[in-house]
Amino acid sequence: SLLQENLNSIQMSSTPSSLCSSCHQSDSDLKYCTCGQVLYCSKACQQVDWVRHKQSCPMVVVRVVEGKGKGLVATRNISAGTVVFTEDPLIVYRKDDQDEGFATFYQVPGYEQFKKMDPVMKQDLMELYDPEELNTNFDCHEDSEYAKFCRIVTANDISINNKAHPGDVDLGLDVVYKQFSRINHSCCPNSFAECEAGSATHSVRTGKMIKKGQEVTISYLGSKDGTREDRREDLLNTWFFHCTCEVCSLTGEEREENDRVRMMVLTYLMDAGSKDNIIRMMNDKKNITATLRNYLRVLADSYSIEEDRGKRAVMLSICHVLYRQAKRLCGGWVWPSDNDSIMVRMTLQKYLGENFLEELDMLAISAASVLTRYFKANVKWNLGLLTE
To answer: What's the pTM value of the predicted model, to 2 decimals?
Structure first.
């Protein structure tokens, strides 16, 4: 049920209604929907009104998240591949296109742009996370409000990739969003973000099922990855916080294994990341079976740690290309009989199905279907190499 039992945890509207939103009767025991926008006198009334209210009931709301400040929390179960919300930015600027000395040096929006902002948008921006104690670079400016603005922008802005095609010119835009800026980071995120082609409009899409009450997270690191030490250093230097997500909280052998697998997956994806490299692998008749075996081993190892659906979709597509090409060049491919290869095969059959080798392309497409256009394009490009 979306009925919120604990009214103290909901921020009330400035002009709350005293009537049930369904039956329009007054009641001393009205309860807010989880979204905090409407009141109901009973679960029955909430269910009757759901068809109407669902159109305006947000899938996520801002909540205080323990150890993180504020974050976005799901108001109901959200299936994988769902666009949670779409929004336009509060401010857009280019770090390398500022004509004021202070703004050029610190790569922030200029003072004039700050003063000319829409008052409502400025207020929304100024309510975002402010790393006041961690970032004092801007305190030398005579306008303390502008200094605060610069701190907030630095801690909340992102560089967007809104190219319609990989060959398009990158406009180098940096932006700050109201709702998107409330999403906290995780090294094993459950959602992805992307801009519409040629636009600064931003969407957040779930990469897996998110249950009601669960926090929505993304990775601030984008395509970057690394060991826990590397990730934490990057996050602290850029966004001014110590990551304590479930991956960064691992200890001992578990953390070492996680670092090892992450770095191995990243290395193998980078090795096949350019057209020249993957075509070289495909045409190397002498070594293609060994290359395929290595990629299948890395794919199997990736199931020993938290799911990264984007990297896994790309890895599946690479394995498909190598498998099909090995069959073409070598007249077929047979699983090696050593113990390591047997374990790899058993692991992949457990997660992908008995006949997974013949279905790698469809598995890659399925995995990418709920992801952003970047991953879909990457998978499609890899699979298309077999037709060239």
So the answer is: 0.79
